[in-house]
Each structure stands twice: as C-alpha cells, then as structure tokens.
From TrEMBL:
GO terms for biological process: polyamine transport. This is Putrescine-binding periplasmic protein. It comes from Thetidibacter halocola. GO terms for cellular component: periplasmic space. Residues 1-20 form the signal peptide. Required for the activity of the bacterial periplasmic transport system of putrescine.
Length: 360
C-alpha cells in the first residue's frame, strides 16, 4: 500500500513536471501589481518564478557572468547598452509579440539610444530620480520654505545637519547619485572624467556624516512609517510610500519632487538573456506585459509611467494626470539622461562609491 501510494505520488510529480512549463523573471522590487503574476499563470498555464532585485549592479554581475537561469530581466538603459555590447542578450522575435504595436514611439525613440532599433528590449517603465520628503517633519526642521524640490536639501551641509536626526537615505546607486551631485555643483551630470568625480566626491563627503543609509528599496516603508524624513530615490517608489502612509492613516504626508536643478530620466527595459532556458515563454511573458490593460494595471499600482501608448486610456487620472509621472513639456525640459560608464571610468566610480559609502 505504502509502495503503491508513493508510486502514484511519483507518477503525479512526473506528469506535473512534464506539463508545467516555467518562465523565470527577474524584475525590480515594488514594480508590479502582484495580481498580474497570478493572472499570467492562469491565462497561459506557464509557471512563473518571479524574483526581485533593487540594483543594476547586482543584475549586471549576473548578466556578465552568464548562466543566470532567468528568461526575462530588466536592466536600465545605460546598463542594458553595456550588456548588449557584451553579448548578454538575444534579439526579440517580434513575430511572437503581437502586442508590439501597443508601444509608444515617443519612448521607443529614447530607448533606441541604448538599444539601437529596440532589437533587444521593450520598455517596461520609466521614471525620474528625485526627492521624497516627510512634509511635516522637514518643515518642522527647516521651516515653511524648506527647499523640498532642490538638491540643496540633500547636498547643502547646513540643511543636512538639521535633517540628520530624522533620517536621510540615499539610493545605493552610484550612477544616479553622482550625476545628481554634479547637477548640484552646476556641472554636466553626465561628466565622467577625474575632475567631475573629484567634485562629486567633495559634494558627497561634505554631507556624508548626515546620511543614515545608502539603500535602494528600504526607503519606501521607512518614509511611509515616518522612520526617515528624506529619501533620494525613484519617483514611483516615493509615490508608493505616499500611498502606504495614507492607507496607514498615520499622519505622515509624503511628497515627491523632481529636483529643480534637473532630474535623471531613466528607462527600465525587459530583455531576454542569450542563455535563457525558455525564450519562447519569455516572449509569452513580454507579450502579456505589452497588453494595454495589463500594462495600465501595473502602472496604476506602482506609479511609474510606461512605454505603452495603448495602455494610456486605462491609466488612472492620478497617474496619467500627474506631471511627476507623465511629465508635460515644461517638466520634460528639466530632465536629463546619461550614458554608460566606460570600463576605466567605471572602475574610478566604483572606487569612489566604496569610499563614499564607508565615509572614510
Ligand atoms: C522599482 C524601482 C525601479 C526604478 N522599485 C529603478 N530603475
């Protein structure tokens, strides 16, 4: 009896394994409405394994090493470009992407800078990097005129000295924080030479004693709970913190501003690793994401703009109507983009970042 049962169980397992196709997706944390993951499995019958990261550097290490085991990954534009050049991705087969026509030419034109012809990737979402504040706390410490939309909030030591007690987090993302320090210093945010990196070091070291943490995902809850009062982070993440605080009804008011000195505009691109175990299922996943209503549901949930034109009619007004998410012409004027760090400059940047994080 015992033998028979285990035999039956083994048979069931074998049958299950044969029937269940898998797709493995590696996306940013806090970046999707999770009900879409279930919907994908129900609609396609494909098992979805969904892992998350919060750092382009972590993803890049996996992509350059190869053998990640993922079918879909989501690097930002500048990282995508380097990884395409290193041969990390396979070209998309658009014949397997019937929803390709939903994509938005305005964004496709911009992403083609990193992925010429958009041959290897589709835009998932895009956004800006800026300043999240606990409005009440920051005004209490810096007064009604607190420069909540200026990089001076986080790079002027006089402000940071006052804010330190309530907690300031910065992204652990050197390619985003260094350009911001340069923009604050009135320099080209995309500069990568020794002089620029020395200037960024000076700006960052002057406020280093007042920075509690460099981290790229904890700030969402930390802002929402009132554990910190300032975060230099990603637009939609800060807007999610605003919502979480409102839902908790805890008296915390969170606001996001793109810095008046200029904000980085970045693009997160879905791509298929060259050694993906199941590229066919990867295309099924991409096509699911490119569905207008699915893409709208994702943006409505995470407060990031997307590269899908057809999704726009399904976006909530507090998403499509918010210029912090979908910038109008004036807001767009104030955004800059960056280019990848070449190897030598990247080594200098990595050294600089280690030094800034350690504070010595
Ligand atoms: C999602 C953040 C993604 C933006 N939490 C960084 N590219």
């Amino acid at each position: 009896m015992k033998t028979l049962m285990s035999f039956t169980a083994t048979l069931a397992l074998v049958a299950g394994a044969a029937a269940a196709e898998q797709v493995r997706v590696y996306n940013w944390s806090d970046y999707i409405d999770e009900s879409l993951l279930e919907k994908f499995e129900q609609e396609t019958g494909i098992d979805l394994i969904y892992d998350v990261f919060d750092s382009n550097e972590v993803l890049e290490t996996k992509m350059l090493a190869g053998g990640s085991g993922y079918d879909v990954v989501v690097p930002s534009g500048t990282f995508l470009q380097r990884q395409i050049e290193a041969g990390a991705f396979q070209k998309l087969d658009t014949s397997k992407l019937p929803n390709f026509g939903n994509m938005w030419d305005v964004i496709a034109k911009r992403t083609a800078v990193y992925d010429p012809g958009n041959e290897y990737s589709i835009n998932y979402m895009w956004g800006t990097t800026g300043i999240g504040v606990n409005v009440g706390k920051v005004k209490e410490l810096l007064g009604e005129d607190a420069p909540v939309d200026s990089l001076a909030l986080i790079f002027d030591p006089a402000n940071m000295e006052k804010l330190a007690s309530c907690g300031v987090h910065l992204l652990d993302a050197p390619v985003e924080v260094v350009p911001a320090a340069l923009a604050y210093a009135g320099m080209n945010p995309d500069a990568k030479d020794d002089e620029a990196l020395a200037k960024a070091e000076e700006v960052l070291m002057a406020v280093r004693p007042y920075i509690q943490k460099f981290h790229s995902s904890e700030y969402i809850n930390a802002l929402a709970n009132g554990d910190i009062c300032v975060a230099f982070g990603w637009s939609g993440d800060i807007l999610q913190a605003r919502d979480r605080a409102a839902e908790a009804n805890n008296g915390v008011e969170v606001a996001y501003n793109a810095p008046s000195e200029g904000a980085l505009m970045w693009f997160d691109q879905m791509a298929i690793p060259v050694d993906a175990p199941n590229p066919a299922a990867a295309h099924v996943f991409l096509n699911f994401i490119m569905d207008a209503q699915n893409m709208a549901a994702a943006s409505n949930y995470v407060y990031y703009a997307n590269g899908n034109k057809a999704s726009q009619e399904f976006l909530n007004e507090d998403v499509i109507g918010d210029t912090a998410i979908y910038p109008n012409a004036a807001a767009l004027e104030n955004l800059y983009t960056t280019t990848p760090f070449p190897p030598k400059e990247q080594r200098s940047l990595t050294r600089l970042w280690t030094k800034i994080k350690s504070g010595t």
